[in-house]
Amino acid sequence: MANTTDADEDGPRVPIVCPACETTSRIPLADVADAIDRHNEQLHDGDDVAAVDPDIADRIADLAASDLGLLEDDGDSSH
Length: 79
Prior knowledge:
With 79 residues, this protein is an alpha+beta fold. It has a domain at 13-67. It is 34% helix and 18% strand. It has 2 helices and 3 strands. A 3-stranded antiparallel beta sheet has the order 2-1-3.
C-alpha cells in the first residue's frame, strides 16, 4: 500500500493498517476494498491481514446502527 496524504480531490480517505507490514495508508473511499484485497493477495497470500483501521470501522458501524435506528431506546427498559 502506498502512503498518501489526506488532501485529495477524490474525497475522503480511509485509514488502512497492516500490522504485519507495520504500515498505515490512507486510501480513497471508493478504492478501499480493492486496495485491501490487492495488498493481502500480494503480500500475505490472501490472508486478511491489512484492514480498515479498527477505530474507524467501529465508528462507521456505530453511525450505521444509529442511522438504522438500532441504538434507539424504545422507552420501555423495565423488563
